[in-house]
Amino acid sequence: MRNVIQSVVLLLAAVLRSKTGAVEVIYAQVGETATLKAPGDISQTEYVYWHFEREDGLQLAWRNNMRGSGTTSVGPWKDRLSLSDISLIIKDIQQNDFGTFLLKRTGDHRLTTYKLLKLTVSVNPPSPLLPGESLSLSCSTQTLPGLKGPEIQWLNPSGGKDKKSQGSITVRATSQENGQWTCVVTYDKKEKKAIVSVTVLDLSPAPLHPQYTSKSCPLTIPCSLPAHISWDQLKAKEIQDVRWHFVPESDLIPQSLFSLSLEDPLTWKADQNRGLRPVPDPKKKDLSLTRNRGTEEDEGDYVCALVFKNGVTLNRTVHVKVLQIIASPGTELISGQQLNLTCSTDHPLPSDLQLKWFPPEQSSLSSLTSDHHLAHLTIPEVGTGDGGKWRCELWQSNARLTSAEITLKIEPKMSSWMLVVICSVTVIVILLLILAFILYRRRQQKMTHLRRRLCKCKTPKPKGFYRT
Questions:
Q1: What is the C-alpha to C-alpha distance for residues 358 and 360, in angstroms, rounded to an integer?
Q2: CA 254 to CA 257: how far, in whole Å?
Q3: What's the pTM value of the predicted model, to 2 decimals?
Q4: Which of 139, 177, 195, 375 has its CA 20 to 30 A from that of 293?
Q5: What pairs with residue 463 in β-bridges?
Q6: pLDDT reading at 376 higher than 80
């Protein structure tokens, strides 16, 4: 019995198509604009009428052989219909607009049938979401008896297709799910796309490479909220804390640096700043830390974290490396000594990074700069021209990441005549000291002898008046 009913339905559909021609199916959402495109073989001398639901139903629009045209102003259709040549345009589609539209032409009395079907997309729960929460996307359409349903597929924000189901999918929210999801409805080789936006709260991605700094360059440790996320959304999801931690490279013990008071206005509080300072006005969603000059103690991992009431923690870790130049045996040398310069961090550099040395202009190596991309430089014998500021730059492709500087002081080598002069001066100084000592001793002896001659009494009386 069921097979008989299906056969009758298919037969009636076939009869309807033979009389009216193929059925044109259009999918649309409530609030959208739909265009019912008229066949291209209608002549300019034909009268054309648009009807709703039945051939003798409500007349929506018309066009005569003088190219005069008009649309109905009845009830809910008022101001929402227009004609583009002969095609019917429906603006701000309402729930009751979905149904059958008929295009009647007086030339051969043919009818063209259009089925405007409702397309519904939904997101559950509504945005915004926290990473890890369950996200359900649904896309469905009206169906017609006797007509095959459309093919439905979801495209994620990166454009990839989800082949798990037809119309409904469930995923775990991550930053990759953030953005525009597209439901693609395909029928009779024609596509209709419906877009929904999904917002997943998260921090901006951390840098792919470590942040490099030196004693010669400023340091910025980036952390920020993406442009599409607001503080109001974070507060609606019951954010409890925004905090910076530092894990030194040396002892691996976390240190609390800053915490953000979420009261209005947003204010940073320092636990221990280590010379760092937050970027002013966190309301602009920039949570970065800065310093005018890097130090060796800056090396380590910096963690920017958002903590929510439900236990979810969003964090980004920024690795900081310090580039420095080490001179051996030191920065003060004598002309002719061997000098070893090393430009590096505490760890080997990745293969995509390159070092460039920049000696002082008067150095003998200044013309060979392009050949010195190694971390170590050896100068067998330094000259006075090698003294001054040396710079080592760290590059990735065409971008300079940071640079380090060191100042060398090169004293000229002492020649034999300089040694003679120095020795002569030393001898003269010693002789002068001896002569001064002899003269001093002689003067002391003369003073002693003079005092003995003036006083010959064994018990001299002091001066004054005495009684007799």
A1: 7
A2: 9
A3: 0.70
A4: 375
A5: none
A6: yes
